[in-house]
Amino acid sequence: MTSKTFRIAAIPADGIGQEVTVAGRKVLDAIAADSNGSVSFEWTEFPWGSDYYAEHGVMMADDGLDQLRGFDAIYFGAVGWPTVPDHISLWGLRLAICQGFDQWANVRPVHFLPGVTSPLRKADDTELDWIVVRENSEGEYAGLGGRNLAARGKGGEVAVQSSLFTEVGCERIIRFAFDIARTRTRPKLSSVTKSNAQQFGMVLWDDVFKRVAKDYPDVETESVLVDAMAAKFVLKPEELSVVVASNLNADILSDLGSALAGSLGLASSANYNPEKRFPSMFEPVHGSAPDIAGQGISNPIGAISSAGLMLHHFGLTDEAERLAEAIRSTTEARILPKDLGGSATTEEVTAAVIGRLR
After folding, report:
1. N or C end of the chain, less CB within 10 A?
2. Which of 26, 92, 116, 179 is CA-nearest to residue 337?
3. Nearest one of 349, 344, 269 to 313, comparing CA atoms
């Protein structure tokens, strides 16, 4: 029997990230234990985050990217803590990894799980499931701009924040999304912009979308303004299959989708470097949640589902599908954490998923 070992860098970082990454690691180790030696995971944990910043003045080691470069994947928890300004914590760790490793494709599935109450009445009797594909390297989060003219005196400072849209960046994420759409039961791709108001970058996006669509005649397409798409998420979610959007717009829409599914605690994500020149990174979307950190009540489903995306990335499709079914049967049995209206602890939800894997 051929055995494969995957080397994974774990970065729990801040708040509940430290709890949910433990849960995900337990689940993956359980899958490895049941594989009869065909799969194993080798973990290396890095202590980077806000505590590291308090001690060293940086969110991660200066050679952090070099340390991570040789791993097969990165498993990330959450970043952010009240003692560190959010722009410092985010740009100093998560975005430093995403941009440093050109993880330009962010994928965020929106799953409606059995046993989880959605605020959408339509979810009670309609099958809903879609994927948000987010451009992850430029757009509104390119980090271009600055603050200046503070010498004018109080109230005189000016801040400029520039979005960046390149034809290369638009085309690669749009083609990536089209390829995913081709695998769906309904091969449909919805492109989201605000090109009526942002007449340069987002009109470029629209033009590229129209051009690339000609190479995918088998995929149904639509172009929707972001405000109209926000309404569609609520009013006509059954029309969604794959949604592709810029960095900011997809960030907001994917959070809306997860909230409609029941909680941000359900939301998984993958930050891909599709060319595999660098490791990809897998993380829940919910954030560090300082208000509940350390209480043992955080929802591990987003982190566990992100581990499932990592299994798919490794080519372990059967294992990923088993894990998805274990999550579904756990929520269907109403073994739910507090944010989903239940009383199960983080450990209890994790143990339930592992039990159903076996």
Report:
1. N
2. 116
3. 269
